[in-house]
């Protein structure tokens, strides 16, 4: 069986995309409280009815940097098993006037698409079989891995000048059970200072 901590880590990994920590315009949007820990994650709404409780999600350093190690720690619990029919949605958008303005989204059948969880996450769990049900229970884990630098072949290569986004963006990850109840919904704040949306 698939363990809850793998799903939790995959959701929390969304926060590793964030450029900077600190005060966010997302906090003034219609969101729930900040996820506990050193991260730039926010609940989409009041998490009291969520089936997943996150007691701490911490990413060190924040923001992660290419060529350095990053440690991701997460603890919490899943109160109800995830079975066939669960859905996972990823949404990307821009934060405008303290409002989340979606640009695009994609919804998948979670149990039929567990391979969407990155291989780097799977390797932390020694190649566990990716299948439902995802068991309920508590999880407490910490993993450290290196963030690779860009390939040497790209260094010094002249690339065409591309428009660079500016402003503040977000990624929303949400998972629902077959009965429509919310497992978790998390928003990661992606700042784009001086037109750079992500460092790596």
Automatic annotation (TrEMBL):
GO terms for molecular function: sterol binding. Transmembrane segments: none annotated. GO terms for biological process: sterol transport. Keywords: Lipid transport, Signal, Transport. Residues 1-18 form the signal peptide. InterPro entries: GM2-AP_sf, Ig_E-set, ML_dom, NPC2-like. SUPFAM superfamilies: E set domains (SSF81296). Residues 41-190 form the MD-2-related lipid-recognition domain. Pfam families: E1_DerP2_DerF2 (PF02221). Monomer. Belongs to the NPC2 family. Catalyzes the intermembrane transfer of phosphatidylglycerol and phosphatidylinositol. This is Phosphatidylglycerol/phosphatidylinositol transfer protein.
